[in-house]
Design goal:
By secondary structure, the protein is α+β, with helices and mostly antiparallel strands. The chain is built from six helices and four strands.
Length: 176
């Protein structure tokens, strides 16, 4: 849109510019700025940016209600994962400043797996297949850069709990 690659654009943004935006005290600006800084912190191509690890502005409110599909997936996971593996299955917001919930599976204190559910909340409507919307694509890309396996479950295609269970079991076999 601006005729410039994102790497060049981010390199043009200085900490002084970021501090001037902070003074605007507007939720929308702070929210977008926090998301930009989160992307810079996670994305490996910006490891030498002067904006890495910069202080976040104003604690922004986060969403507290989880999607129905995520709650259903956690219930199914709790049912199909053997208890002797001693895994913790948690619903959380894996990427700071992206309020899209997902599931993280831990073994002791180590992150083992991230599970993302593609449902009507995070996918484009009226498409032949479940295409994640822009912010969900960003979240998936950032999760993959954190070097933790990501499993995608197409919730819109599975009609029954049994189909969801089978889909999850097949995908989990690769990682457990």
């Amino acid at each position: 849109m601006l005729g410039i690659k994102s790497e060049k654009l981010i390199n043009e943004i200085s900490p002084d510019v970021v501090k001037s935006i902070e003074g605007m005290d507007r939720y929308r600006y702070n929210s977008r700025l926090n998301l930009l800084l989160t992307c810079i912190d996670i994305d490996k191509q910006f490891q030498h940016s002067s904006l890495r690890n910069m202080k976040r502005f104003n604690k922004l409110p986060s969403k507290q209600n989880y999607r129905e599909s995520i709650c259903k997936m956690k219930t199914i996971l709790t049912k199909i994962v053997p208890k002797e593996l001693n895994l913790r299955i948690i619903i959380n917001y894996q990427i700071p400043n992206i309020n899209i919930d997902g599931i993280t599976i831990y073994k002791d204190s180590t992150k083992l797996l991230e599970i993302e559910t593609l449902d009507n909340v995070v996918c484009l409507q009226n498409t032949p297949h479940s295409a994640p919307n822009g912010i969900m694509k960003l979240k998936i890309d950032l999760l993959k850069q954190k070097e933790c396996p990501v499993i995608m479950v197409d919730y819109t295609r599975s009609k029954t709990n049994y189909e969801l269970e089978m889909d999850l079991q097949n995908k989990l076999k690769l990682y457990m």
